Write the structure tokens for this entry.
Amino acid sequence: MAPEARGILPSADFQRLLDALHIRGYRIAGPTVRDGAVVWETIGQVSDLPISWRDHQEPGRYRLEQTGSAEIFGIVHGPQSLKPFTFAPREPLLQIKRTQGGFAAQPKLPQPEKVAVIGARACDLAGLAIQDRIFLNSSYQDPYYAVRREGLFIIAVNCTRALPTCFCASMDTGPRAKHGFDLALTEVDDRLVVEAGSEAGSDLLSALSLPPVPHNVIDEAAARVDACAQSQVRRLDHSRLPQALYDAHEHPRWDDVAARCLACTNCTMVCPTCFCHTVEETPDLTGQRTEHARLWDSCFTQEHGYIHGKNVRPTIKDRYRMWMTHKLASWVDQFGTSGCVGCGRCITWCPVGIDLTEELSALLMPCEQQSMTSRQ
């Protein structure tokens, strides 16, 4: 990136960035603390952000604590990725009305809105890029997704702290945002290095008239991001995928993980890339019109596998195997990339702490070695 595409912003002046977005007509969404977790909310002031908060995440555990620091982006991430901004949890698709001798269907596209999201992480950008490939760049573009995606302005934050559940470095999706952002921030003590990643981002950066970043600060920011990558204690070995997972179809580990899995769907709800959905009809009381809507669904639900009078995935073993094999293997065949971005949310938000990286390692073991390990 050229030097003119960077600037340095004192943390005390961060409101200037928010004000510049407001002037350009953006609704600003940022991480906020609510009900013991960090979630996206509309914000207007820097004080709305989780300043001095930090998250602690482990398999099946999540908690927040106050540190007393002035750190703006000490939180790595909450249960939400960027997915809700483009692939809405509930999306009205059609309004269907009775007519004389038939019916008429009217598409219900969302109203265009300019939304600036502050605080997206590199793994979130990687997840959004996968969703773009599915909803925008396939043979059939999704017009509902396209409208929401068009209005999105993304301000990413490079990670300088890894959670125990993070493994983005092994997936080459982080902790530094490489593409897919308009602006990227790296917090270095009481300053923020601001980098443009798009024409819109460059325009905003120019309007802020920020001073250039000293070379020692650039080096320090890069060193902190590199240290974050080196500190990650989990990794996912995808060197033998997808074939190794296909070969493990009858591995005894599937029975082991199925005995622990609750089929609660948490892993798919927090995943940045999962896109399973169902549809529902909501008729009015007169029976003259109905709304046809799309809702998030999960391959872990029993109903999702019910096709033409038969359930093709009747057991939890079937469903977990379907999810993991699709995520890490057949996704590669379908879309040319893994369906996992290494964010670790599925590990944190699994009530029983099932670890995707641990399960894959066990499945890549020969069955005989896995049986011996299970008995120990």
About this structure: Residues 243-375 form one domain. The CA atoms of residues 183 and 196 lie 5 Å apart. The first helix runs from residue 15 to 23. The chain has two domains: 3-231, 243-375.
